[in-house]
Amino acid sequence: TVFVCTICFQMKHRPRTSFTSSQLVRLLADLANENAAESKKSFAERLGQWLDLNDAIALSGVVNARVGSSAEAQPRAPSEATEGLQEEVGSVRAALVDSITTDGVFKAGKVRIKLPTPAPGAPIETAASYLPYRRYYLAHQREMDASIGLVRTKVQKALANHSPALHQLAALDAVLDKAMGERQRDLLLTIPLLLEKRFDQLRQTHEQTLAARQQADDPELWLQPGGWLAAFCRDMQSVLLAELEVRLQPVMGLIEAFSKKVTLSQ
Predict the structure, then answer these.
(1) pLDDT in tens, 22-32
(2) By the 8 A CB rule, do 234 and 131 touch?
(3) Are 199 and 133 in contact (CB under 8 A)?
């Protein structure tokens, strides 16, 4: 019942999304050549598998908290606040997109996290190591986690200061973030492992093609147009951008709830 009440409350204020229909999951399924089938379990049942007793009690407390009357609300320049939050979230998103796409290899510019490249003259096995790309992906995940975490907290505070109903939604989002944050991070950390399979697959296909043509390998050509490493880097960038959108969904849901509440109150 805690889970049903929670979901009912959430669906009133946040857009309905399906994780398995997200761009991120579709991309990973394509890379792994697998189908991303929708789970037959209800969202409440799946949520219950992620939460322990303490989390359930905390959620129950938030969901069942008394929501004050509209007379208790003290909006603070709602229209300006909503626009300001939208701009700030948009700025964070733009900065993270730029960090992912401006890699210093395929796109020049001020690089925050440089895409690794094979060292000139390095042995084939060293040049074809996946480890630098795993570290690269993890660095972007840490950057997304830190930047989005800060703006999510700011949006929660803005909602909490606007009205009792939005205060309750902000509290619910904070509890869910705390309860499921570690599980989500664990799931997202599996993405570099899936990308490693794609890395190995592309490399093996490349080696088989060279063997069939009786050609020698040259790491300096891997990042050229049509090269196997260039293809992998494009795939990795697409997955990073898709993961960014997944990470932003809770914040965008809060912004949408804030915007709808402001529109109804005006």
Answers:
(1) 677 777 777 76
(2) no
(3) yes
